[in-house]
Amino acid sequence: KTEDKKLGGVSVYLCVSVQGGVDNEVSLTAYITIALLEVPLPVTLSLIRNALFCLETAADQKENHVYTKALLAYAFALAGKMDKRKTLLDSLEKEAVKEDGSVHWQRPGKEPEVDLPYYRYRAPSAEVEMTAYVLLAYLTSQPAPSQEELSFASHIAKWISGQQNPNGGFSSTQ
């Protein structure tokens, strides 16, 4: 989805591709808010404040998809809303797939991995992306992440690094 908006007299062109299979207003709002906070635009800007208000309201809904929770956690981390970030990360931790010393997230109803000889399974881009957003949320903390958060983040990083293809890239473009 693309949009051309005037922001403080400057034209801002937003191009958002929702890869995680979640195509809703909450995810799109989170993507755009993340992009604006990474510029960085101040949290005090009315556009950002309004977006964060919408995201805070949406974060309280129980039916949020794992991918949406990952985006929300990172958006709140960038905005310095550590209580909201922690609540979402706690919820995400309960949904994590923990195996072989690594941690990742996958979409609900996903087919089990195929175990074939001479074939190394790599997760679809949606799993790589949402796991990467959770990692960003863990590492984006004010003050710095705790030792416990860094330890958990290292297990996430282990899984992500295992998803690299032989050329060092990933299935995800995010």
From TrEMBL:
Pfam families: TED_complement (PF07678). One of its GO terms (cellular component) is extracellular space. InterPro entries: A2M/Complement_sys, Alpha-macroglobulin_TED, Terpenoid_cyclase/PrenylTrfase. Residues 15-174 form the Alpha-macroglobulin-like TED domain. Gene3D superfamilies: 1.50.10.20. PANTHER family: ALPHA-2-MACROGLOBULIN (PTHR11412:SF165), MACROGLOBULIN / COMPLEMENT (PTHR11412). This is PZP protein. It comes from Neopipo cinnamomea. The gene is Pzp_0.
